[in-house]
Structure formats: structure tokens, C-alpha cells
Amino acid sequence: MKRGIQVAKESFDKEIQFLRMLALTSGAFNRQQFADRLGISVHTFDKTIRRLKDIVSSTYQHLPEEQGKEFAETLKYSYYDSTDPMLLFLFRAKSVKESESQRLSLLLGAMNADALTAMELLDMCCSSLPAGVPQPDEKTIRSDLKYLEEVGVIRKEGASRPFRYRVHNDLVQQLSHEELIDLYDFVDVMANTQVPSVQGYLLRDGLKKHLLRNQVEQPAIEAFIYKYHYYSRILDEAHLFTLLNAIRQRHRVAFLYFSPKSEKSYGSKNTNPLFERESEGSAIKTLPLKVVYDHQYGRWYLLASGREGIRKYRMEGITRMETEDQPLSEEAFQAKRCELDEKMKYSWLIDTGLPVTVRARFYSPGDSEPNFVRARVLLQGQWGQIVDEDPYSFIYEITVNGTTEIKPWLRSFGSSCEVLEPVRLRREMIAEWKEILAYYEPFRENF
Amino acid sequence: MNLFEKIFNYQIISRLDDNGTFMVTSHERAWLKTMLEHPAAKDAFTAGTLEKLVSLLESDPLMDTADHLVQKARSREKQVYHPLLRTLRRHIMAKEAVQLTYGTKRGSVQEGHAGVPYKLEYSMVKREWYLLWYHLRRRSLMSTKLSKIVSVSHQAIAASKYECILQEISPRRDTRKFEVVIEILPDYNRELSRILYAFSSFEKDVAYNADKDTYSVSIILTGNDSDYLLSKLRFLGKRVRVVKGSYLKKRMQESALKALKLYGELPSEEELSG
Hints:
Oligomer: heterodimer
Radius of gyration of chain B: 24 Å
CATH class of the largest domain in chain B: Mainly Beta
Number of domains of chain B: 3
Number of domains of chain A: 5
Strand order of the largest sheet of chain A: 1-9-5-6-7-8
Structural class of chain B: alpha+beta
Structural class of chain A: alpha+beta
Strand order of the largest sheet of chain B: 5-4-3-2-6
Shape of chain A: globular
Order of helices and strands of chain A: EHHHHHHHEEHHHHEHEHEEEEHEHEEHEH
Number of strands of chain A: 13
Helix content of chain A: 40-55%
Protein name (chain B): WYL domain-containing protein
Distance between the termini of chain A: 67 Å
Organism (chain B): Paenibacillus agri
CATH architecture of the largest domain in chain A: Roll
CATH topology of the largest domain in chain B: SH3 type barrels
Radius of gyration of chain A: 27 Å
Largest sheet of chain A: 6 strands, antiparallel
Largest sheet of chain B: 5 strands, antiparallel
Strand content of chain A: 15-25%
Helix content of chain B: 25-40%
């Protein structure tokens, strides 16, 4: 390990890439094609599938264990059954030795019932662990307790030695059954509608199991569903906290970046750029300034400051991230942050190009219906304003950095939106509609 | 904060479930504490419960993600929670029928309709809650905005009848499903990941034709999803083409024709056929 660099102990890059590709391309590729695109062998592909299957089946015990059922099929998004976020199991994949997982769960089980000292816990472990599992010593128990206290799962009781430890679960102990239902619902709603969400999903999972143990039926718990949800977004939260931490501490990060749009990877090799071979990634060293979540596509970006100025990276292309431990001075960092904030002021998403004023006329759907066009513009139009209005239409005006990012949104209104300015955007829109019309030409005679 | 803590390991979690232990980490508490600051919390809990939760989490830190995380192209968050959610979710949990009075799109009020509520659905696009319910007299599947519901009251129903209806819902819903196929124009394959992200909120399958280097996405829809998919297709523009699904094809063509008319650029019949 290089000095001054913290290397993640276990990298889940492969698993994340693997799951993202499964989630996005569900079923498009055979084993060989899939492995090729990830840059791994078919053997590694099979091994990874076996491992992930194993985690999935023990995380979601209610899943039918159908032999030969395709893994992609298991993970497939099915709207009415989608209450459990299937991809969450990625965050359950950290490997732990069998003996350690037995010991930790035994310790927590014991501290759930009583407040116990390290020595009492050691005795309990020695008498309860099944034969064949190595017996822990006092040092191991003490280090387990230290770890569990650090992650906030247990709490020290009393002020004098020997300390007693108890599971830190007031959250469920102090609440009535009715209150727990309210809590479960709140966690479910917030995890699904807000970001970040992984901690919320983990909490939801724990509360759900707790309610199920207390005789609430599964279907009765799952009352809520979320329509048009970008469920794969949680995969990218894997890097989020490392980056937020680096920003907080003003640390630079280094990573291997695979641009999802790289021309080169598409040229002769005919590979999906998302999953190109590792050797094609580029080594990046940069100072993270902000993380952006784009609700339009359900994707994450890193905005950073490098030698060439402000750079943008898609979170999905970031692998093997390492954090350096030399912080930049507060002053220098703030200067870069302010510069970015200034440039981002008019970004529809992340464009930091020159600001331009876009004017568009939106047409009302007609008298008989509620004005859903206006409602949608108000809902999604960010900081744009309705500047003029008559019974049939209204004019929406917004200053944005460049027109590339807002264009798809304007186009999504179809013939309810007419771009007025800038003229260049108006011309582009006309040209695109002509192209789109051409796609459906042969169809014209059929209706 | 590390999301890959060993304490989240799946074997540990399943053992804890076996021995009946509820475990919560400081990560999850910090998340919860942060979320409780959202205005939605007031609708989610009684004042007493909210106070209790806040005091239980007093010693936990707040997450400072909002300082460094920017959310873009987000819809105005007009409704995260609705005051009726608590009432309706309890009717669903207790397997009860209800009497509903609700307003319609056109402004009339429908009084005292008996039905079985079975799910509460949040639209991530419209940012609103809907009640999905079975209309007992009409025997039809209904979807009603919570904001349109005037009143809800309990209605007696025999347990056997309730179960029967619940069994009926899923197959009824399936009969409304249909498939459309969208092709990604190979010229835009380099934008594949972005395009697939855009479709990731649908029930879908992707097929890849290696000879033609072409990806196609088949999407399973129910009737009222068409409008949303249509807006997604227009959003993606010339990158995608509907290859199966005459309704969507027709609507896409209509959009293009009407838009061009708006711009005074409607091609002549001659150009169209040429």
C-alpha cells in the first residue's frame, strides 16, 4: 500500500458493475457476452453468480428456490412485487468469516436479553458455540465489543468497571406496536422518495423483520408501492459516502474511470462502454467538490476540480477509489467550491457552459380537461417562470447553462411545447421532429 | 460512514433474525434523525410519537449530506406524505372494506362508494399518492388520488368475500397488461447506459442482436402507463423508435406531425411519401 493513501479493504466494484449490468440490460446477453463486457472470464462470471445467488437466497428467505431459475429473472423488476429493493443485498455482501458471523450474532442475541460484561459474554460464547467453531479468547471478545459499540449497535451501561453492554435498540423497545407501524411506514416512504436511501432501506429491512417476528403478516406490512421508481439508483450510493467524506475533509481522491460514453470503446471492439475492460479506464486524481443526483435519469455525478478546471464524472464509471490524506487548505477549497456554485447556478443538470435564456410557448390541452401541461411545467420546470399567459397557452422562460440538458424535457411535451428562443434550439427541435416523423413513415398508411 | 460494514453482512442478519434480535446501527439512526426533520414527519406520526422519536435519537448525529449533495431536475415536492395515509394503511392492514367519498377530475363528488383498498401508490413523477381499490358494486379496479378523497369510513365485509376479492385483483390487473418494443438506433449505442437508465423504472427485458449490433427493450405496460412512456420516448427523441405497439407508434407520429405544424414546418404530402 502506498503511503498516504487509504485503500478500501474490500472493493465491490465488480459486484456493482455486475449488478448494474444485470439490472439495466436484464437478459440481453448470454454468459459469454456478459463476461466479455465485464472483462472477466466465464468461470469468474459463474463464480460471481453463485455467490450473489447465495446472498440473495439467504437475505430474502421467502423467495422460491427454483432450481435453474435465472438469476436475472430473480432480480427482475416487477412492479407489484417490488416492495423489497432487491439490489440492497449488495450492501450485505461484505465477506465475514463463518466463525465471526456466528460469534457476533451470538453476542448480540445475549446482549439483547441482558446487559453483560465482557467476561460473562466470553463464558456464554464458550459454552454456546457449536463444536468445531474455534473458541474465542478475551481479546477477541473485547475487540468485537469495541467494533459493535463503534457502529452503534450496542451501548455501555454504568460508569464503573467492569462495564456492561446491551443492545442499543430503544427505537423498538420504547415504541408501541402502533408507533412501530408508523415508523416502518415513514422509513419506507422516505427511503423510496429521498436520497440517500441505503441506510433507510437497511432500517426498513430490520423493522420489517421485527414486525414479522411479532405476528404481523407480510402482505399487511407492505401497503405502499412506488410508481416509476429508479430502483437501481441505490447501487451508485456505494461510492457516495466515500466521496462525501472526502469533500468534508477536503481530500483528493484517485480512481480508475470508465467513461460510459467513450468513443474508443465503441469503435472496433463493439463493446458496451459501461463494462469495458479495466485496462481501458483512465487514472484520475481529483478534488471532489459536490455530488449531484439527477432525478431525470436517476443517476449520480461527481463534480470535481482537476488540473483542467471543473470536471464531471458519472458515478457508475468510478472504480477502485482511494482517498488521499493530505487535506487542501480550507481557503483554497472554498474558493473552488464558490467557483463551482457560481457556475452551477443555472445548470439544468450539470452543464457549466454559458447561460442562455430559453423561451417556450406551452399549449393548454383544451377546455374539457384539467390543465396537466401547466401542472407539469410548474412541477418540473425548476427555476423557470411563467411570464405570460392567455386562455390557450402560456410562455415559460428560464435561464440555463446551454440548451443540451433542457432540450429532452422540452421535447417530452410533444406538440404542447413550441420553442421560441433561442432560434438555434428552435431549429434543432424542428430538425429532430422531422427525423422522428421519418421513423414512423411506413406506419402512416396503417392507421 | 461506510455502507459496507461487516455488521450488515447477510449471514449475521439472518442469524439475528433467527434469534429474534433487532439491531440498528448509528448509520441508520443518523439517517432517520435527518429524515425526521423533513416536513413529512408531521403527517407521518402523532405529535407524541414524533416527540418520542426525536428524544430517542437525541444523542445521534445528523447526516450532513445536504451540504455536499445537490439534487437536480427534481420535481417540486408537493406531497411526500398525505394525512390519510395512516388511516388508509390501517384499513388495508386490518383487511377491511371502506366507504369512500371522493371528487372526480371534472369536479363532481362521488358519494359513499363501497370498496376494498389494497395498495397505496406513490407516483414518483406526479409526486402524489393514490389509493388503489376494488369497487364492490362496479367490480372494477380503481385508482383515486388521496387529495381527492373527501371522507373514508369503515364498511363491514365478510372475511371470505374479502379474500375472494383480493385473489381476483392480481389476475384482473394482468389482463390489462400489454407489451411494447422499443429499439435503440445503433447510432446511439454509445448512449446505451443513459437510455437504459431512462427505461429502468419499467418492467422490461432487453434483447441484443449481435449481428445488427442493435438493442431492443420490451416493456410491459398497463393502460395508464402509456402516457408516461410516451413522454419518455419524446424525451429520448430520435435515439429510440417504437417497433411494436401501434398505439404508441400512432401517438409518436401524431406528436411529430402536430409539433411540425406548430412550427409551420409540416412537410408536404409529397415529401412525406418520398
